[in-house]
Known about the structure:
By secondary structure, this protein is an alpha/beta fold. It has helices spanning 17-25, 44-52, 69-82, 102-108, 131-148, 164-168, 179-192, 216-235, and strands at residues 4-10, 31-37, 58-62, 87-90, 114-118, 126-127, 160-163, 197-201, 204-205.
Amino acid sequence: xxxxxxxxxxxxxxxxxxxxxxxxxxxxxxxxxxxxxxxxxxxxxxxxxxxxxxxxxxxxxxxxxxxxxxxxxxxxxxxxxxxxxxxxxxxxxxxxxxxxxxxxxxxxxxxxxxxxxxxxxxxxxxxxxxxxxxxxxxxxxxxxxxxxxxxxxxxxxxxxxxxxxxxxxxxxxxxxxxxxxxxxxxxxxxxxxxxxxxxxxxxxxxxxxxxxxxxxxxxxxxxxxxxxxxxxxxxxxx
Length: 238
């Protein structure tokens, strides 16, 4: 059976982490979990440290400071490649991505290299977001799609499964962006390299505990990143 790694970056997720890990592992005996914790002052790392002592399927990388989502996922992808996992999955710790959807992501890897849990491939599937944030997300995706030429409807999605071939087929060190920008950048590079991308519908539910990591800096970074990707497209660069 193919072996998978679920990568969950954390910063101050003590309210969620002890519950999300068992729910992820319960989805399949072929799944491991890698937590990448950015020195959470609320003790998230310590909670995971204790959990992993009793379960070899739980892995933990503790970083010395808050370094951001993008570098966390790159670290996780490299861990997956180095440890011979067949696929890697990225998801949030806050239950906005349901662990119950993991089997569907994995099943769809049979005929795709990247499977995206999409909020926008069948209308709009978002629960408990204020209208302002929903409009920002929807039009950010429309802007990114038009400028980059990448046909993915939910380019900013953070619930995705990658075959190892897709991760090995791009230059991970080239990706320097964070947050929304990271998601747009890696999707675009995978699509440009000719890998098959598939979107499946999910219901995204706003976090039930903890604090959102959204910031204006992340939004501005994503805006200018899309312009760069659009310029690369015009110049014929991958």
